[in-house]
Hints:
The complex is a heterodimer of chains A (417) and B (217).
Chain A: H1 9-40, H2 45-48, H3 52-81, H4 83-91, H5 96-129, H6 139-154, E1 158-161, E2 164-167, H7 178-195, H8 198-234, H9 238-249, H10 251-281, H11 287-329, H12 334-365, H13 377-401, H14 403-409
Antiparallel strand pairs in A: 1-2
Helix pairs in contact in A: 1-3, 1-5, 1-6, 3-6, 3-10, 3-11, 5-6, 7-8, 8-9, 8-10, 8-12, 9-12, 10-11, 10-12, 10-13, 11-13, 12-13
Chain B: E1 2-11, E2 14-24, E3 29-33, H1 40-47, E4 55-60, E5 63-64, H2 70-80, E6 81-84, H3 96-106, H4 111-124, H5 140-152, E7 158-162, H6 170-186, E8 190-194, H7 198-201, E9 206-211, E10 214-215
Parallel strand pairs in B: 3-8, 3-9, 6-7, 7-8
Antiparallel strand pairs in B: 1-2, 1-4, 4-5, 9-10
Helix pairs in contact in B: 3-4, 3-5, 4-5, 5-6
Amino acid sequence: MSGQGHARPVGRGRLMTAGAALATLLLGAAVALLELGLLSSREDLWRTRDDAPLIAALALALMAVPAAAFVHQVSRLAQATGERRLAALRLAGATAGQVRLIAARESGRHALAGALLGGAAALAFALVLGVSPWWTLVAPPVVVLGGVLSGLMAGRHVIASPLGVVRRARLRQPRALDLVLLLLGGGMITAGFVLKHWFITSVLVGVGAVVLVFGLTLAATWLIRASARRAGRRAGTAEALLAARLVEADPRAWARTLSVVGLTVFFGAGVTTQQTIVLLRDVSSSFEAGYRLVYLALLIALVTSAGALVVHQAEDLLDHRRSFAALSAAGAPGDALGRVLTRQALIAATPVCAVAAVAGVLVVVLPLVDVFPWTGLPLTLGLAGAMAGIGVLGASLVARLARPILARALHPGALHR
Amino acid sequence: MLEARALRKSFGRTTALEGVSLSIGEGEIVAITGPSGSGKSTLLHCLAGIIRPEAGEVTFGGRRVDSLDDAGRTRLRRESFGIVFQHGELVPELSAMENVALPLLFGGHAGQESLRSAMEALERLGVADCAERLPGELSGGQSQRVAVARALVAGPKVVFADEPTGALDSLAGELVMKELVRTAEAARMALVIVTHDNRVASYANREIVLRDGRVAG
């Protein structure tokens, strides 16, 4: 970020490259682990419970989502902050489509650099595991394609004309259809665990998890809007009112960013629940290595999600810099405006993390309801609550990290741009 | 009441203000005019305590404004000054009434009391029927009158208006100016208007002309 609240192109490029590298590494490592898991378990998957590599593969594949979300978030910010350059290109005769293609090519270039770095690391990981490294090469092209698509999609939010650039104001509100994917994904995962056939289960859980990720994003829009409306009705201070109304006006943007936090909490709650069951039932297993990998993946996901949240906050402040600068000039204390950011994060993150934690527990407990050790329920719920707490705490800490960006947005100069 | 002495302010190598001195009395309406880049907005920002001058001093009611820390100047702006911007700068996600209530809420007033005062301010400005609407649903003139209501709601002693009609057509601009001047006169507030529009300047009791950062007349 420069002194005027705009991200520098070099910094944005590096962020995108780093995000793409991480996404490629996670995806490539997931493919390698999946290969290892399929080689080692096959038909014995449910009998011997030697499915640690599969659990870790699923976790890593899902954790590639936060990294991808991070890349997309940076891509959106890059386009929003490159306003003058986009306008200059239009003035020089470029069509709107050409401007979008230029943006897509730029994000594709950064994604390619990151994919090569991450791909090399994934290749090394596969060699260390002793599996064929060729399947990991699937990851780099997927990430590069994602980078190009992200550049094209991010361009939809910025309308560049020769006279200047405006950010697209159309905000999408939730629809009833948004809940279908959530139910479908949850149903597929549950069915997969109930059927207990190695191939069908792998397909159902894998596809179900992807559907669930999208469903979680869409359903989170509903949750966040409801939470914001409730907070708005109860608001007694300026910062509470501002935070609630800002979140209520654009719940989709918060849902997009927080769904990866929700996913981390969902997976964390699910895994801790499963681990609790294994411990209480005293089942000997080779799960430990898998758990360690899963927790590592969750930690990486949480940190990556935090990065995506910071970038989201920066984009949000970019949208509201004039309003915030005007409020500051009119006497709104900087501290109070900083608290608006924290409250926004709390309003949006609390319901998403709470529901994700409960869903994570249910996905594991429901298929095992006949053998679940009910004496362990308080411990299970406590751990799920802790996972939700980590998610909410992470989101509010990120909001505090974004305060320096706010301080720059409050500069009186923002009123003249 | 509000006084500036030998103000100097520069941005990089560009000198925005050089040796500017002026005095504004209670209930006085002053227009600061001059060509683009003459330092009008910078002077308004210095007078309102939004930015600090590099040299010189600003006093309000005998108190130095420029030597106050950031929190002190913020409190002063909230309690004693009202500011109207060229484009209104309302928060798009808040209703007109909530926008007007914001300065009171930031000042620690209770929610219901703030909303009631905001409604009264909107009534005074003739836009009470817009209270529940979002800024995006208002015309330019309505939006600017809501912005004026926000600047006046806390009962300031000085109202600063930076090109208050710059984004409006002449009819809407005239309406906004009439309401602004009428309300300021009724409450004996000083009004400092930055403008390059002679019609707007004609509402003032006195005109200060800036050129290249200096008072030219």
